[in-house]
Amino acid sequence: MAYLGSAVSNTLVNSLHTSPAGLVWHPARSSRSPANHQEPQAARLSAVLCSAVASCWTGRKGRRSVNFRVRRTVTAERTARREELMQPKTATSKKWHWKESITVHYAKAASKIPGTDTAVVLLHGFGVASFHYEAQFGPLSEAGYTVYAADNVGAGLSWPDFDPAPGTPEEICSPGTEWGFGKPRPPFEEMVIGEQLWVEQVKDFIAECVEESNVIIGGNSLGGYLTVLATATMNTRLLGRIKGVFLLNATPFWGWIPNRSKNPDLHDAFPWKGQFPVPESVRPLTLAWYNTLRNPDSIEWLLNFVTSNPAGVGHELAERIATMADHPAGAAAFAQILFTPQADLTFEEALDEVVKCNIPVFLLYGREDPWIIPYWAARAYTTAPDADYVQLSPSGHCPHYETPAAVNESLLRWLQDKVPVDGQGPRQDLPGSIGASFTVKESDGREVVVTRRGFAEPFRENELAWDEFPAWLQQMARG
Question: What's the pTM?
Answer without folding.
Answer: 0.83
